[in-house]
Amino acid sequence: NAGVTQTPKFRVLKTGQSMTLLCAQDMNHEYMYWYRQDPGMGLRLIHYSVGEGTTAKGEVPDGYNVSRLKKQNFLLGLESAAPSQTSVYFCASSYQGLAGGLNFGPGTRLTVL
Amino acid sequence: AQTVTQSQPEMSVQEAETVTLSCTYDTSESDYYLFWYKQPPSRQMILVIRQEAYKQQNATENRFSVNFQKAAKSFSLKISDSQLGDAAMYFCAYRTYNFNKFYFGSGTKLNVKP
Predict the structure, then answer these.
(1) In 3-state terms, what secondary structure has residue B58?
(2) Which residue of B has its CA nearest to A58?
(3) How far, in Å, CA of A25 to CA of A73, rounded?
(4) Which among A1, A43, A46, A57 has the fewest CB atoms less than 10 Å away?
(5) What would the mean pLDDT of B51-76 be, rounded to a whole number?
(6) Please, which residues 28-67 of chain A have a Cβ atom closer than 8 Å to chain B?
(7) For each of chain A's 113 residues, which pLDDT tens digit applies?
(8) What 3-state class would DSSP assign to B84?
């Protein structure tokens, strides 16, 4: 099992450009998440999904959109990148059962110039 | 929304010694889950230990154990016999009982001195 994978691992964008981060999981998990990690701020939830075809906003959703057309994939889009979106982005998944923890992808380092 | 606080931005421990990392949280729920995650320089997030709030017994995983004080809303991590490989960022996380929403603290950087 590959677990949770993320594409790409690194990316540099110019202000105003758009991009999509792809997350895939092969564990048949219902829940998927996108977090951003910034120094001194821990991980902050951007958007999450409780199942195929559903999405919901997290703590810091502005400037991002998501889609979950297939259960195993969760896409994070930036329509018009801003320097404030420079961060490390983590995708994660969890199962619905009790005490289910998060399984994380390896992260994507995004720099917006 | 629930908040998770890690008041120690950075700590150091001598190899083979014991260290305790602190975490407090705020919630109005009676049932929930708590986790500690480790993030080494590789950036990969690794689950260290978990605790169900309805269990009074503190969780242990080899050299890692927790001190869960539900009334005080405290969830500290104790690392015994510290090893160089324990050097990492450690994040405390709270998970709601329903809907699997996770909230993270700001992290504690642990340095291990040889």
Answers:
(1) coil
(2) B101
(3) 7
(4) A1
(5) 95
(6) 31, 33, 35, 40-45, 48, 50, 59
(7) 789 999 999 999 999 999 999 999 999 999 999 999 998 888 999 999 999 999 999 999 999 999 999 999 999 999 999 999 999 999 999 987 666 789 999 999 999 99
(8) helix
DSSP letter string over chain A?
---EEEE-SEEEE-TT--EEEEEEESS--SEEEEEEE-TTS-EEEEEEESSTT--EE-SS-TT-EEE-SSTTEEEEEESS--GGG-EEEEEEEE-SSTT---EE---EEEEE-
Exposure string for B56-93, b = 16+ CB within 10 A, e = fewer: eeebeeeebbbebeeeebebbbbbeebeeebbbbbbbb
Q: Which two tokens stand for residue A80?
A: 């018009």
- From chain A, the residues in CB contact with B44 under 8 A are 104, 106-107
